[in-house]
Design brief:
The protein folds into two domains: 4-47, no CATH class; 51-155, Arc Repressor Mutant, subunit A (Orthogonal Bundle), CATH 1.10.10. Helices cover 50% and strands 19% of the residues. It is elongated, with a radius of gyration of 18 Å. By secondary structure, the protein is of the alpha+beta class. It is built from seven helices and seven strands, in the order ββαααββαβααββα.
Length: 156
């Protein structure tokens, strides 16, 4: 017999509910406790995301994605890098990064910054046919060793 599934997108990823019949899925959804996604999101960010603690006071994870909350001065490169660093799988589209930076109160020409960061070896496109950019290992080290360590030093 063929199974059916419902995919529910959340801030931290996707919840998949499967059943043999549509009623199975509805029954499971009815049994999900209140605030389930919020509790699961908290669990995921607190237990499974090691960067959660080190980003406190710098980045806030919202339903839209990571928003920069630090009041320290950042270059546009640092701001783009921080948003990518805190994004799922350290990847995001230029349009989404632009939107998240605007939510953070930062105006930047994100496509131009990403292009320059690609030339520096800090980001790359995992799939050239898709509009997503991802931090390279070098880019992650730059964020951790230079940007986050400087910001954490100013916060303590």
């Amino acid at each position: 017999m063929k199974r059916i599934e419902a995919r529910i997108k959340t801030a931290f990823g996707e919840v998949i509910i499967e059943g043999d019949q549509p009623q199975d899925i509805l029954d499971m959804l009815n049994n999900i406790p209140e605030n389930f996604t919020e509790k699961l999101s908290d669990f995921v960010s607190n237990r499974l995301t090691p960067s959660g603690a080190q980003l406190k006071g710098i980045i806030e994870l919202t339903t839209e994605g990571p928003v920069i909350v630090t009041r320290e001065n950042l270059t546009h490169y640092q701001a783009v890098g921080l948003v990518l660093y805190a994004s799922d799988d350290k990847r995001n589209t230029a349009a989404q990064v632009q939107k998240l930076l605007e939510s953070s109160g930062i105006k930047s020409m994100v496509p131009a910054r990403l292009n320059e960061m690609t030339k520096r070896g800090q980001v790359f496109k995992p799939d050239p046919s898709k509009p997503e950019f991802k931090l390279t290992i070098q880019g992650e080290k730059w964020i951790e060793d230079e940007v986050l360590s400087r910001l954490r030093g100013k916060m303590s």
